[in-house]
What does this fold into?
Amino acid sequence: MSKIDEVRDYELFIGPNHPGIEGNFSFKMKLQGDKILSAKTDAGYLHRGFEKLMEERLFIQNIAIVCRICVPDPDPNENNYARAIEEIAGIEVPERAHWIRTLVLELSRLASHLFGLGGHVATTGLYAFPNWTIADRDRIMELFEELTGGRVYHIYQLPGGVRRDFPDGFERRVLDVMDYIESRLSDYDDLAINNSLFIKRATGIGVITKEQAIKWGVTGPNLRACGVAADVRKDDPYEVYDKLDFEIPTRTEGDAYARIIVRRKEIEQSISIVRQIIDKIPAGPVWNKIPNPLKWKVPAGDAYVRTESSKGEYAYYMVSDGGRNPYRVHVRGASTTHGVHVLENLLAGSRIEDASQIMFSLDACPPEVDR
Amino acid sequence: MEYAKENSIIEMMQTEFPEAHFTVKKERRIEVKMPSGRLYDFAVRMQKKWNFLHLSAISCVDWIDDGEFELVYHFWNYDEKVLVMAKIRIPREEEGDSHFETISNLWQPAKFFERDIHEMFGVYFDGSEDMERFILTDWTGPPPMRKDFITREFALNFYHYREYEPQWLKDMMAAGEGNE
It folds into this structure.
């Protein structure tokens, strides 16, 4: 082995805190100079054993647990959990509650996309942009606080509906925030999305072809950036998505830039969905009373429910054996594919300076992987 | 006809898998129970012939009273927009791992799900490239998602309760304040 070979190949441990991801997650990389030869994910820093905890708690108690599975986008968890119980137990949900739930899910998607956009752009060194998006995301957090009492975790969607109705004047404030975020989009474009520095850094990075995307099990905005117009909201509609008019933005390039464009366009769609909901939401009760939750035995059965989270397909498989606790809850986060083998496949062959951008462009969420 | 799409899919699959038991659970959800030996063939057909290109998840359920693990494979078809849940049961080994064949050569996402099931339930998937520990790298106990692993019992044995009664708390209680 020559002297140059000895110093050229090396191993690098990245993480668990680093700019590429929204939580604690690490990688063992083999490098040759600045080229990544292979990368292996190393997870478990955020493992809290939620699936096991849920088996030992009452159905109602778990509502406070499930939202913690994905921090930036918690509401798909609550929605999946509530819908799985409703499907197994055959509980009807009032019409107005379906609309409110859809509103909450879209606000959550907006908040998460703002977070994701800011984080992605920050990996290229443009630090003004994330400060803007995080500050704007806070406007949505304030809406959540008003509606649910919680900023990050809402514990709002119960089996049978939602916990409480809109406060007075809430609709007006939601529309104001939507107007505000819409007015900010052109600023976002000027500062980051159409910024030639950012375009140069993001184009052609972390390319996934359409065939690879299907083969690797990519879902959500990452899949739509490869030219596949698949979205659980359209394909397997839940709540009131089949009554709303919205588009599925797609791109065909499959690179980091295509992924941020898809998310940027989804923000517009979500704003439009929220406005339609405020416009069309029917009056009525928001919760159908369920049996005494402390003694409630959900009948035996199983259900596989899916939502489209801001990260992709989010599914719960719930089994009840007729007892007071769920017998099994399996959480299938979108990041279990994006954060593990998709990332490993993309990192191999790319350069070390692009690694954190590739990670953030997939918008993988470590707490979903670890559970 | 109700569930026309789902029933036509079942009809198509039933001819090749007469021993499997199909039911429509609801719109866009089909459940199938089959002997475990047929699952690999079924998975091959699903991907290569019936166009179920997306493996959504593999779930494992520990039916301890029956002495069995249930593996549930969730397949999604992007064109037909139908999800098929294929359920099989394998014997539950008390000591050491249960074994089943991998489908990770067909679906890349299966690699993660199988690795997770191995770690949490102790089901070894023969033929998979990667069955290493992923989340519980330092764990030496039994697979924790098995029903006979009781979290509370483990916590009581592993950690120690310590009474916490500092003097200031005693004084406070004596003065009639605090929780009591």
Q: What stands out?
A: Chain A has a mean pLDDT of 89.
